[in-house]
Amino acid sequence: MRTPWALNPRRLAAVARKEFIHVLRDPRALGIAIVLPIILLMIFGYALTLDLDRVPLAVWDQSRTPQSRELVSRFEGSRYFNVMAMSGNYEEVSASINARQTLMALVIPVDFGRRVGSGRTAQVQVVADGSDANTTTLALSYAESIVRTHSMEILGEKARRLTGHPLTLPLELRLRAWFNTDLESRIFIVPGLIAVIMMLITALLTSLTVAREWETGTMEQLISTPLRSSELILGKLAPYFVIGMVDMLLSVLAGRFLFDVPIRGSLLLLFTVSAIYLVGALSLGIFISAKAKTQLLASQAAFVATFLPAFLLSGFMFDIGNMPRVLQVVTYLIPARYFVTFLRGLYLKGTGLTQLWPECLLLVAFGALMLLLAIQSFKKRLA
Amino acid sequence: MSDFAVTLRDLERRFGAFVAVNRINLDVRRGEIFGFLGPNGAGKSTTIRMLCGLLEPSGGHGTVAGHDIRTQREAIKRCIGYMSQKFSLYDDLTVEENIDFYSGIYRIPKAKKAARKAWVLDMAHLQAHRHTRTGQLPGGWKQRLSLGCALLHEPQVLFLDEPTSGVDPLSRRAFWDLIYEMAGQGVTVFVTTHYMEEAEYCDRLALIYRGELVALGTPGEMKERLMTDQVLCVTCDRSHEAMGLAAAVEGVRDAALFGRDIHLMTEDAVALAPRLRRTLTEAGFEVGTVERITPSLEDVFVSLIEARDRADGAQKEFSA
């Protein structure tokens, strides 16, 4: 009696060859495999950005003095704001915010120029659309920073005129953000996106493959033959492994050349660990498929079991440190969490195995465990 | 090596409270064409699946090609061919790709591979269609290809589960020629069917009904010995109406329509014939011939199944 783990290469090759033909002749599968990752890359790379750029701004300058124009030019010169409208009254300000033409309005009172010129405190008003709290908080802090900087400049100018010396501040802050100097969220998102794409595509594709054979009745024929479950499962993995690696390459190339995300770590390590993660994700899909036995149930289960955790709980979009304690504990069970950490470390910091070995080790364990489960879950039995 | 390709002892399969196969005993000799008959849901497919190692028996024992169906399932799978009720090759693969796939699964030796493939293509008359997608073939052709793939590795025992359902009569005849050819080469063929004319082609038959073995024997034995009733064939106008009347005549056990004839089961055909003719004529029917005939297999099965139903009904009344 031979163990179920024994493998016959000819049978394995026969299954792999058949599966390749299935994929190549199924336009839907090819669509999921190639088009879907490209769409995801475009959405997350271009459209979805956590940065706030060029907040549309309305300006109502009642003062119309050199001093007020100076302040407006500070806003215009900043990359964070884009002056969209010059308003003449409050109605216009509120109309442009209501129409979502602008997100914020700068209102400069009539006496602004006079008060600044005479050295007294002048007031400026910033009105913001508070319906999107996150964006508004960010925009308000930009506005505050521009106004404060400008007010320091006025103060400095005054001091220079009075004393003949430029004003020296007691403290000076020098900001420097390592690894992502420009603090662009794209640089942060794209590496994590690889983890989400690989998990989603491969689990979606493989979740159908075993269930389909149960539905069409071909499985009954297969289990009447000497084919072993290890040969069947590994044979089924083969074409999807190739697809997964192509998607991975696609994401890496898009990241490097389309989104200018630098890769600071070793490419060899990147591809090796990705391959391991891929085996785990594929096996998870097969496992779901073998348990579900219908394609509809399998694809829904695959979506819930892979995409949602990889998207929400991996730290790809939402910082794990900010999650409630219970959810934080749950994230330790999500393999994508380790892969996202690994990808960001390797991409942005250029770290290697010396720092990332715990993540790599856990991913190897995930891959091996899932493969084992997938092979074991498949029973050569009808009921 | 035993003389039997299949032996079953008290084989049983339950699904929850439902007994699909109830303690079946039978032996199939090597090289025999063994027919397994019964209405839909009688337990034919369940039995065949247990024999092929696809389902675990709930009770009893069995061997296929000398291997135990409980403990040596994988050994069995190497020496059997199986064709399930549903067409189960890959529609999106070509004829040749399907053959190559099974050739790999059964590990046909490299030296033999090309010859076996040519044999299947010839047998199924698909030489000209080797590059056609299997899904585009007509039903009868698919059936032949399935048979070919099940025979690629030259199995000792071939299990066919309703191989000709949904196939036109001409293809069905051609398919049976192939089955004879296999049997001639020493392959044991275990085939389920519900076509009575196909039952006549088998060397031996088993009739299964509600999970139980009702009768076992050659088609000839079944017709001669198992039939306690005699059959009276009546030709008559408005046979459908006449049947209702005939069934009520004293001495008639059962009545059934066969085409435009009425077949009546009775213990004594000679005594019944004049009585029946009188009754029908008095009721205004034009009666043609009334004669005792040799029962067909269908008569035998209808009679056996109805006898079984009567016995079950009596038992229910008794226990109530």
From TrEMBL, chain A:
Stored Pfam families? ABC2_membrane_3 (PF12698)
Residues forming the ABC transmembrane type-2 domain are 136-381
TM annotation in the entry = 29-48, 187-211, 237-259, 266-290, 296-318, 356-375
- PROSITE patterns named among the record's database cross-references: ABC_TM2 (PS51012)
Q: How does it sit in the membrane?
A: Multi-pass membrane protein
**Keywords for this entry?**
Cell membrane, Membrane, Transmembrane, Transmembrane helix, Transport
Q: Taking the first listed entry, what is the main subcellular location of this protein, grouped into a coarse class? A: membrane
**What subcellular locations does the record give?**
Cell membrane
Q: Does the keyword Secreted apply?
A: no
Which PANTHER family does the entry link to?
MEMBRANE COMPONENT OF ABC TRANSPORTER YHHJ-RELATED, MULTIDRUG ABC TRANSPORTER PERMEASE YBHS-RELATED
**Family, as annotated:** Belongs to the ABC-2 integral membrane protein family.
Under what name is this protein listed?
A: Membrane protein
- Report the gene name: ybhS
UniProtKB/TrEMBL annotation, chain B:
Gene3D superfamilies from the xrefs?
P-loop containing nucleotide triphosphate hydrolases (3.40.50.300)
Q: Per its UniProt record, what CDD domains does this chain match?
A: ABC_DR_subfamily_A
- TM spans, by residue? none
Q: Which UniProt keywords apply?
A: ATP-binding, Nucleotide-binding, Transport
All copies of the ABC transporter domain together span: 6-235
Name the source's superkingdom.
Bacteria
Q: Name one GO molecular function term.
A: ATP binding
InterPro entries linked to this entry = AAA+_ATPase, ABC_transporter-like_ATP-bd, DrrA1/2-like_C, P-loop_NTPase
Q: What is this protein called?
A: ABC transporter ATP-binding protein
Question: Which species?
Answer: Geothrix limicola
